[in-house]
Design brief:
Elements: H1 2-64, E1 76-88, E2 91-102, E3 109-110, H2 113-120, H3 124-133, H4 141-144, E4 154-155, H5 159-179, E5 187-197, E6 200-209, E7 214-222, H6 227-239, E8 248-252, H7 256-266, E9 270-274, H8 276-284, H9 289-303, H10 308-324, H11 328-335, H12 343-347, H13 351-356, H14 361-374, H15 383-398, H16 410-416, H17 422-429
Helix pairs in contact: 3-5, 5-15, 6-7, 8-11, 9-10, 10-11, 14-15
């Protein structure tokens, strides 16, 4: 027994000794690797800056001629150097830039082409936006960048500078988002939904064009998600060129303010589908826990029907059951706007396409990205800041946009929305 215990102990000592030896070997290798990486990075950075300054000197010589040599027809002359911050890896590095001036009484300094190009293609704003979207705070921005050799003077990494760049970047995105013309869009459908930010209601519109591509259209900010705010958003879309001479399928969460605004701005051209998921939630909110499972199942089965007539019959039976069991508020909630939860069934859309336009899931997925981006803000400072950050979040969400599910059958939706369809004629008659 003692012999076996000794052998077992010996077997355990070998791996332990090997791990110590391995650690003693790997740790210096890791340190050396990091040192080599830093040295190589510093070398590449210095080499790149040296090449850039050499290019600037060559440009200055091309404009003003060689230094120290007389030229009879010279139109420019060298004027020393200046320390100039230029974009580099998401920050600014200070470069000794040669200066060139025009000769004569009215002469002024000439900007070198490479300096102008570097300033026009300044990637710092893009770097800042990318880092903030990824969750980096303005205070931690500098640490998130690739390190720069200590011998290189840098600027633009302070919290205040990063904040200024972010404000400029988000302001540009907001202006682009709210100012884009919409007259060339062939819009088939529009999703409208609201999101609450810092006790403000932000209503966002996302369109779907004829080929199924999703396009953010606009936003409007107010104190509540009411009729006035929704109307201002829709009127803004029209002012920017959105065509209103044809029926459009509007998918909404069921809010009365948005519904009234659609009627005021688009009239009978607004073919409205109320979100079935929101309707189920609204009804369940009026019920005790023991009845929610049954009602949820019945509503889902009704919405899976092949026709609006069948679905309406099943939902009518459910309303009668609710009233018979004393659930009058749930029955009233289900009855309110019931026909508009069945619009996609009346349009006769294929299953996949009908499922896409029966809920507001498409725009709520975008709102999920918005919430992820907006959680980086710790203190809000008014509507302008809210709108700027929403524009940044929308731009981030748009990068992952895909065409709606069932986009290959969008022609069926377009055909169903033509003015001669029974649905539109039925709405006009009503």
């Amino acid at each position: 027994m003692k012999k076996k215990a000794a052998e077992k102990a010996g077997k355990q000592e070998v791996p332990h000794a090997m791990s110590i030896a391995l650690g003693q070997l790997v740790l210096p290798m890791m340190i050396a690797s990091e040192a080599i990486k830093k040295g190589l990075l510093a070398f590449v950075q210095q080499l790149g800056l040296l090449a850039f300054t050499s290019m600037l000197e060559a440009e200055a010589e091309q404009i003003a001629g060689p230094k120290g040599k007389h030229a009879k027809d010279r139109t420019h002359h060298h004027w020393g150097t200046a320390s100039t911050p230029l974009p580099f890896g998401g920050r600014q590095v200070v470069v000794e830039r040669p200066r060139v001036r025009r000769k004569g009484k009215g002469g002024g300094e000439v900007e070198l082409p490479s300096v102008a190009m570097a300033r026009e293609t300044d990637p710092m704003a893009a770097h800042v936006a990318e880092q903030v979207v990824a969750g980096v705070s303005t205070r931690g921005y500098g640490r998130a960048l690739e390190p720069v050799d200590e011998s290189i003077e840098t600027r633009g990494e302070s919290k205040s500078q990063v904040s200024r760049v972010l404000i400029e970047s988000t302001s540009d995105k907001l202006a682009e988002f709210l100012g884009r013309k919409l007259d060339e869009l062939e819009l088939a459908a529009m999703f409208i939904d609201g999101i609450e930010i810092a006790k403000h209601a932000v209503i966002i519109a996302m369109g779907v064009v004829n080929d199924g591509t999703k396009v953010p259209l606009g936003l409007w900010c107010g104190s509540t998600e009411n009729h006035v705010v929704a109307t201002e958003l829709l009127q803004n879309l029209v002012e920017r060129g959105l065509r209103v001479d044809r029926p459009i399928l509007f998918v909404i969460d069921g809010g009365r303010g948005i519904r009234k605004a659609l009627n005021d701005v688009f009239g009978t051209r607004a073919v409205v589908q109320r979100c079935q998921v929101h309707k189920i939630r609204n009804v369940l909110d009026h019920l005790p826990d023991e009845r929610r499972r049954y009602v949820r199942r019945q509503m889902r089965e009704a919405y899976k029907s092949k026709s609006a007539k069948t679905a309406k019959g099943l939902l009518g039976q459910l309303i009668a059951w609710l009233e018979a069991n004393g659930e009058d508020s749930a029955a009233a909630s289900l009855r309110e706007g019931l026909d508009e939860t069945l619009t996609v069934l009346r349009l006769g859309l294929p299953t996949t396409l009908g499922r896409t336009f029966s809920t507001t899931n498409a725009i709520e997925n975008m709102n999920g990205t918005l919430r992820r981006v907006l959680r980086n803000v710790k203190r809000w400072r008014g509507e302008d800041m809210i709108k700027r950050w929403v524009a940044l979040g929308v731009a981030e969400a748009q990068r992952g946009f895909r065409r709606v599910k069932g986009h290959g059958q969008m022609n069926l939706l377009l055909a169903a929305l033509r003015p001669k369809t029974g649905l539109v004629e039925e709405r006009k008659a009503a």
